[in-house]
User: Fold these one by one.
Assistant:
Number 1:
Amino acid sequence: MSRSPLAALEEGGPDLDALTRRVIAVALVALALRLVLLGDRVAHFDEGRVGWWTLHFLDTGQFEYRFIIHGPLVQHVNRVVFAVFGANDVTLRLFVALVGAALPLAALLFREHLRDDEVIGVAAFLAANPLLVYYSRFFRSTLLVAAFSFVAFGLLVRAVDERSVRYVHGAVVFVALAFTAKENAAVYVLCWLGATALVVDHRLFRTGSDESGVEWLRERVPDRETVATYRARLPRYLGHLGIAAVSFFAVTLYFYAPRSPDPNLVGFWQGVTNPTAFPAMVGRTVENVVTGYEHWFGGSTDPGCRKDNLVDGYLCYLGRSLESLSGYALPLVVLSVAGFLAERWARSRPRLVVLFAGYWGFVSVLGYPLGTDIYGAWIMVNAVVPLAIPAGVGLAMVVRWTGDALHADAVRFGLAAFVLFLVVGQVAFALSTGVYLDHSGEDNTLVQYAQPADDFRPALDVLDERAESHEGTDVLLVGSPYVRDTPRRGGIEPRCSAISDTLPLQWYIETHDATADCTANVTRAEAEIAAADPLVVVAPTRLTSQLAELLPGYTRRTGGLRTYGSQAVFFSKTANATAG
């Protein structure tokens, strides 16, 4: 008697083994962690800036790679998301959240090298680590480049396992996606080269037999017959190399190439539909990419952390990175060290995948603080993702110790169980406080300075209700910190606004389809208010009393536009309020 479809689904389907079903269950938990209250946090400066440009792309059809907002992938994806579901804080972060939720599935790529419990441990860390969860709920490309690079590495491992070139082509596509997500994908390639060198050195140092590394290597030098076989296969190898190169070029060109609705201008679709325009389109794209990479890799920047030299700045950033790791990734880091050392010292034949991931992750902890000039805990995403592999090994090791000691050694069982209790407790506490309850607090080391401290969105609700029927300026920014001396010639609107002090306000103004203007002082604001009758007026709090006289009956709220300081006052027009 055949099973019903429902019964087959409940058992995980005929093609899913137990390990796959368990990892899928972990991924579903990851999905829930990322989607719950996804729009609760007010947008960060970076989220608002990229979100605004994405809406600009959607509204005008014009796109250009702007290196200051990093890779173009998210703009292309969110342009579709906004067109289908509308633009708000949930849809803004949805794509990154879904990628972060799917990341635990990548643990299955290493199943030939890890035990089942270790695969589940890797998936669990990728699913529930608070730092990864926080930045999976953040419209920024750091999580994307880490996830795509991790999957590409896993596919290369599968290619070696199965001697299948299809995994290589898949890895090339994911590497290309990593490059379209963020420029530091180039750093991942350098990390892989360094980790490969260390793994090769380890393999030559410990050959697994009495022979030396040189002897082991000499035995693997191909003989004439093998060389002849490789020579005969050379056209096929070159063909695959050509396919890989074309795949990488096609993916990166698609996302980096400019777009324009004007058929007479240089754009992607003009280039692919008109062979004569293709070279100009490629040339423009390459020029933009070279400019962007020269900016990010062109040399040292300000050391940051208010230090006078690069060394002090690096130590400051490294200290802050370690503080973030200790608060929100301590179990992962400790167990990754334990898993790595156990792999390297306690196994007669260490698994090279575990060692590779350990080298990759540990170097990232030390290296990324050197390459940043504005601190954000997001840089540690680049280290935490690869460290999930040795951490999963370490977690499985502790779980096995606990099980083995259950009926044998009460003291050993108690210690192991206590370690597991600390791991679960720390993760649960850090998730609840750092990700959900205090997602914008000054004491939360996951929070970057440009995150608004307070939720000012209720002050803008009047725009939803009345902006469409309102005839004057909807939002007026008042005060010299919020206003440029000369308006920008293009870019984020209102062009008179100083985005360094006002983003993400422009994102919210745009999502409400509202108009905005600026005035530098209260004297000029009086005439502007009388003429435009704005629905919302935003100013530094030092101007509160002066503006209150001009805006009788307006509802007044205050909130920080940054994690600390930068207090703003929001005047929202009520039904019976009068201006001027």
Number 2:
Amino acid sequence: MRKIIVLILGLGLSVLAFGQNPDAPVNWHLKDQASDQLQGVSVEKSYTELLSGKEKREVVVAILDSGVDIYHEDLKGAIWVNENEISGNGIDDDKNGYIDDVNGWSFIGGAEGDVEFDNLEFTRIFIDLNKKFVGKTEKTIDKKNKKEFERYLVFKKQFDDRLSEAEAAYNEFMQVYMAYEQAQALMQELTRKGNPTIEEISNVETSNEMEEAFKGFVLEVKTTGAESQLEEGKAHFENTLKYMYNLDFDSRHIVGDNYADTSEKNYGNNNVKGPESTHGTHVAGIVSALRDNGMGAQGINDSNVKIMSVRVVPNGDERDKDVANAIRYAADNGADIINMSFGKSYSPQKSVVDEAVAYASSKGVLLIHAAGNSSKNIDNKDNFPNKKPLKGKCVKSWIEVGSSTWTPAELMISDFSNYGKKSVDIFAPGSDIYSTTPENEYKMLSGTSMAAPVVTGVAALVMTYYPELTAQEVKDILINSAADFKKLRVDIPGESQELVKFKKLGKNGGVVNAYNAIRLAQEKKQ
């Protein structure tokens, strides 16, 4: 039975954010290590001891993501408004190239609607190679195409292997899914209830071993919270096969741009929520869910930090052209910080993204990026976008963020988190973070996708009270004031048998800390 539950919990996880641990303290990431015995970032302590009565200015945070529910009850008043644009008049009032971009823009929408699903970047590369080389052999290939053909063969082998694995995982999951449906139907029959409670199922009298096994199965799924993940898991596996690895699927007609033209900027639509905005709304709430409205989640900031929603991430991999344009849009429309809780292993138009990153940096924007959830060392494994351009030096106003947990000692780094002594600048709480989700709902999610907006939120907090600081100075403050865990021995993510010093998994061996950052900012101002 345990194996089945583990399968449900394990296979139903999203690439970008994982489900909740029911034992996690709500809002633990805002707490203080010393006073609360939780490895949070001391936000509440900062407000109580350092910020009471201080003047603050408005800061704009661009959330480049799947979309944000700008009508959420806990984000009202914290959404950026383009004051130079008149809503709904169909005119580009501010002449920025985007019609009715009142709260941001979507680069994955168009006149035909909005993109919800897309391929993986790996699949898109293979599609192009396959069109060129399918059916050809080494003997029929010109010398000038030999290297590209060899690349095609490598990709074809990988694609076939990945597709087979995805199909096998789907089939395995569906066995569990259908078994649960069968077990649940039996419990409905025995209890004579359409949706029996845990108590009613517990009181069922069974007449044979099969009925007893099905009873135990349903009870364990319901009591572990795995029931909701069954539907999520089913959708995940179906979408993987239907869209991510489907060579015949192309969503770009919805956008209506000339995708080959990476210089094209003025496309998309103003639907900043999109068809599925759970991820982006959760990220936004971590930064700015209202603190004093007596409901829901607690953001690191309040309504003085405005959320600009720039929709760029589908269910699948984001596209480099869209990422580049989203970064430029945010920089041109007043964003102080850009949060990027997404990533992928291939970046065929990386140079276009590099140029946009350099552009935003030149305009004084702080860029914050999630390190990824593959338990890998990104010093030697590709993870895009990143701060290292194809040409030139690393961008100085970029922060790469790994994920930490609320548990102490060796389990402090989230097991899913990517890491890297050279690549990851800082860690932040990313496991079991409670925040906003669409339609006035709330949920705990985990991922470096959650850790990045914790750093973004702390950076915005510093900028709010110390507007004279540059993006580079804020980055330095956050890193230099991080809670020091350099010598703490922790599990290497994905390799629990080996303990290493925290400092070997990131640049400074630290976790972002708002209280320390505010104090250091105060010292700099004096």
Number 3:
Amino acid sequence: MSEYAETPRTPRMSYTAEGPAGAAPAGRVLTVADVLALPVLAAGRPEVVAGATRLDRPVRWVHITELTDPASFLKGGELVLTTGMPLPEDPAGVRRYVDELADIGAAALVIELVRRFHRPPGPLIQACRVRGLPLVTLAEDVNFLEVTQVVHTLILGSQADAVRRTQRIHEAFTALTLRGAGPEDVVRAAAEMSGRTVVLENLVHQALICEPSGSTVDEALSGWEQRSRATRATHHGPAPRAARSETTGQGVTDPEVTGPEVAGPDVAGPEVAGPEGWLVAPVEYQGELWGRVALLPSPVPSAGFGPQDVTVLERTAMALTIARLIHATPWERTAHRSALRDLAEQRHRSPADARARLAALGLPTEGTVFLAVLMDLRTPVDGTGLEARLSQELATTGTAALVGTLAPARLGVLLALRPSQPWRSTVEQLGRSALEVDPCAVVSIGSEVMDLARTARSFREASRVAEATCPGRPLTAGRSYNELSDIGLRRLLYALREDTRVQEYAERQLGRLVDHDGRHGTDLLTTLRHYLDAAGSKTGAARLGGLSRETVYQRLRTIERLLDCDLESGERRTGLHVALTALDVLREGGETT
């Protein structure tokens, strides 16, 4: 049995030319597999007999050779074509021949089995397997010159396309920078251009912005801090020419095919790092490292990072550095604002996404009690310094919370507390701080909820409390905030003061009485108020108004005549009391606005 027959053979691989002949997917350089699929080579019935797992190697050029030392004429990345005529006879010479090709970085060796050989020599197969060099045999005669013409045309065309794509990337990020785009816009643009999930994090591995692509926020951010800490990058120089993750094998191909590198010789550039093979780049602020931006790998294992991804991430990092200088608001605060608004307005795609996002911001999400707090001020929040003050107070006490502006004059706080942790003292301190900044501030809270998905309900309840609270009204003794139990009839009607049905009711019940007082200079409305406050006691009404009983009797008869009612009826007195309270609230509301 021959030496070749004893060597296990890789099963024959079928190559077809479906779709555009030999065209690599957009954004990716031509690979060995792409070249073997070309009709000009497929006609030779190619068979991969070694290195079948390395067919994703990029092909930068095609080199025809009949020399015994072809490596001296190569630069790396070439597909080497030979008839086998110069191949050494002895195994040692064959190994030396293969070693030289592997050392220089040849993409693959293609040998035609027509003239000298009709089957590949065993030493050649073994040497290629040892060095991981793809070895492809051709059973039929192939015009090598035609192969070079076709492949070189595709490579040059791909390079021209890559240059155009890179130019478009530069133009897009330049436009973002010129219009002063914020970090959310920059990260979103990066995700759209790369087709990958992009995450911006700070130095303590909190994911501030996540723009998912092809995945959910939950999938992208689950266990973020632990995963991020395991992804350590050197960030000490420009992007490597051929960075590759040792664990995933996902490569970053040579940036030279897409034009000049963005990063200078002293600027840190993107690199593949960590067990998941993230492509990461540092983001600076005033010359110091602030955080980093990461492109997460595609769910498709073979879709490694290409030159276009490197360019996108380089420009993303640069645009974020500029945006950090332009936008004065710390990005952590911006992230809190965005997360709070999404929770309050239920804009998350799923509860799992919400939990993953908050966990990535450093908040506990399991076994936690959540409480919404709203603070409504007379002036815009940004001009008061209250947001930063409350964030600092909560951080000092070790209370987990999100703090952010929900509207120009409304500040929101989401407390994330342990089940045994009392919240009243914390809310009381927050309220006092708000009242120190604005004595007319209205601090409102919702109810406690155990599920993050229900925090929107707590925010809605706090908003209802705020709507029912007139600014400047005295608070319950010893409290700096308002809660649901504080909403009585007056507050309920205050919240409904803009409802025309409430206005119509007050006018229908009391309009004739108010008109009479206006025309005749009487004060029957006050007498009615005293009578109702005294629970229908004429003696009590006389005492409250400082009038004689006879005067009160006379006025009450006039009121009954004008309103066409019997004031002895408890139901009628209740209706008039509601109408009178509504009238008071409507007048207060008009003065407030």
